[in-house]
Amino acid sequence: MKIAEVSEKYHVTPDTLRYYERIGLLKPVARNESGIRDYSEDDIHRLEFIKCMRRAGLPIDVLIEYIHLLDQGDETIEARIDLLKEQRVLLQARILEMQETLKVLDYKISLYGEAVHAREKELA
Description:
single chain; mainly alpha
């Protein structure tokens, strides 16, 4: 799959794809006879994982560390588990914070809705 196709399908800019390759999140992508990047299924799977982890809020440096461990093979499985568990704890904390924020927003929306309803009653 060409870089433009990957970019469109996965909503990642070509610059971001090249950046991920440059910093080692993606392995060097094979190129066709014209020198154009040709993403393999393995490249796409790694990109999907990267996107998922970025959506979860993992910093680039943590992803680089994880990918570095992954590329070293099975002897780093325990280190990868530790890294992922640590990130999971951080994500759970962020989710709880976001749930609290959501409660505040819901409260404010309800409060303002009641005010609008009361004003409409007065005007009627």
